[in-house]
Write a structure and sequence with these properties.
Layout lengths: L27 E5 L4 H11 L3 E6 L18 H6 L3 E5 L5 H11 L4 E4 L5 H4 L4 H7 L4 E6 L14 H7 L2 H4 L18 H22 L18 E6 H6 L5 H8 L16 E5 L5 E5 L3 H10 L14 H6 L1 H12 L4 H10 L4 E3 L3 H6 L1 H5 L3 E6 L3 E6 L23 H9 L3 H9 L4
Parallel strand pairs: 1-2, 1-4, 2-3, 4-5, 5-6
Antiparallel strand pairs: 7-8, 8-9, 10-11
Organism: Teichococcus globiformis
Pfam family, one: CoA_transf_3
GO molecular function: transferase activity
């Protein structure tokens, strides 16, 4: 399949992965991942062309059972494990550890999200991995990182979001609700950590293999070049997103508070209710945009009101300003309101649900909503690949396969095991 495959039912069935697609084609990455963070990192690498070999326990990654079900399977898995070859191994068995080390010898990088120290106990610590492949890049994703006083505490993405300061900021504004702090709605902490891990892998491989600079000589074989360990913490990944909150606290002692649907540093920006109940997000948070909004509202006197003169004043009086805008938007149906504000040259949109996203002409035009064929589901919608490279949006090369779908192919092609040896492993519960 070429990079120019047209939009439509363009995914290959099963795990037939055509070579040479995407800028990372030629890289092979081993995933010892489960749940969200590490598998998300490898999905990104696979989307851009890397060959991903995912190792699961014999029962499969728990995400296979998460979310809605269709024909006995979770559709999320179709995307979560796309562009991956999936094999099963019971890592508690020494034969499985030997297989992992054999695969490591064939890989450029390994991505894992076990609790710190667990792989060492299994015989898959840094020393063993780098002995098998001296130039290996090892990306480790954990709740709190590989050291520090919280190193051994369990964590999921939601914990990272809470301790990283995000859950506080996504809450309702102070004094407006007694409900618990609002979750973003997706596993944001896990996904951000996965993005950082993918970036770390690519950066380390560039340093390892680049010509010149302070890296090893380009004529050195990858296995002779030093390995690199990437340490990504869920908590730190979220914490890094907090914009000016930390320097503001450090210089002013101020603690940024939740702003609900608004932006704490600029106004007006919020999702305002139209007459038919549709929420339209209007972002008029600069002086020229606020001028346009005031004129569109037919209330030019707002421009002379000292409460709204300049961004800092508007932020200080955002509740009064939002009430005025909300009173105006309530006089229009959502579609008419969106059209009016758009014609005024102000960034706006109704708040999309997933059905809106799937039908959106911009997403469709850029291949961000793709109909692919999945042997477990039939036709499934997949999100496109981000980023586009040289204008190309790479179609999925495969969908998430069944448990152990690639056991025989990987063990045969990469490790040279014959059918008898593979059957022995199966009989012994290794695969």
């Amino acid at each position: 399949m070429s990079d120019t495959t047209p939009q439509g039912s363009d995914a290959m069935p099963g795990t037939a992965l055509p070579a040479g697609t995407g800028p990372l084609a030629g890289l092979r990455v081993l995933e010892l991942g489960h749940f969200v963070a590490a598998p998300f990192a490898t999905r990104l690498l696979g989307d851009l062309g890397a060959e991903i070999i995912k190792i699961e326990p014999p029962g499969g990654d728990p995400v296979r059972q998460w979310g809605a079900r269709h024909q006995g399977h979770a559709p999320w898995w179709s995307v979560h494990a796309r562009n991956k070859r999936c094999i099963t191994l019971d890592l508690k068995k020494p034969e499985a550890v030997a297989i992992v080390l054999g695969l490591v010898r064939q890989c450029d990088a390994l991505v894992e999200n076990f609790r710190p120290g667990q792989l060492d106990k299994l015989g898959l610590g840094r020393e063993a991995l780098l002995k098998a492949r001296p130039g290996l890049v090892i990306a480790r994703i954990s709740g709190y990182g590989q050291d520090g006083p919280y190193r051994d505490k369990p964590a999921f993405g939601v914990i990272g979001e809470a301790i990283g300061g995000l859950r506080h900021l996504t809450d309702h504004p102070p004094g407006t609700s007694d409900l618990p702090p609002v979750r973003v709605g997706v596993s944001l902490g896990d996904s951000v950590a996965g993005i950082y891990a993918a970036l770390g892998v690519v950066s380390a491989l560039w340093r390892r293999d680049k010509a010149g600079g302070d890296g090893p000589a380009p004529d050195q074989a990858p296995t002779q070049r030093p390995g690199t360990e990437i340490d990504v913490a869920l908590t730190e990944s979220v914490f890094s997103l907090l914009e000016g909150a930390l320097p503001e606290y450090g210089t002013l002692g101020s603690i940024r508070q939740p702003a609900g649907g608004g932006i704490a540093t600029a106004a007006p920006t919020n999702a305002y209710r139209a007459r038919d109940g549709i929420r339209v997000l209007i972002a008029a948070n600069s002086d020229p945009l606020f001028r346009r909004l005031a004129m569109a509202m037919g209330q030019p006197d707002l421009l002379e009101d000292p409460r709204f003169s300049g961004n800092q004043a508007r932020v200080a009086h955002v509740r009064e300003l939002d009430a005025l805008i909300g009173g105006w938007t309530a006089g229009f149906d959502g579609a008419a309101l969106e059209e009016l504000v758009t014609q005024a040259g102000i960034p706006c949109t109704r708040v999309f649900n997933i059905a809106d996203c799937a039908a959106d002409p911009q997403f469709l035009a850029r291949g961000m909503v793709r109909a692919v064929q999945d042997p477990l589901h039939g036709e499934v919608l997949h999100p496109g690949v981000v980023p586009r490279v040289d204008g190309a949006g790479f179609p999925p090369r495969s969908t998430g396969p069944a448990v152990g779908a690639d056991n025989e192919a990987v063990l045969r092609d990469l490790l040279g095991l014959d059918a008898g040896a593979i059957e022995t492993l199966r009989a012994g519960g290794v695969i």
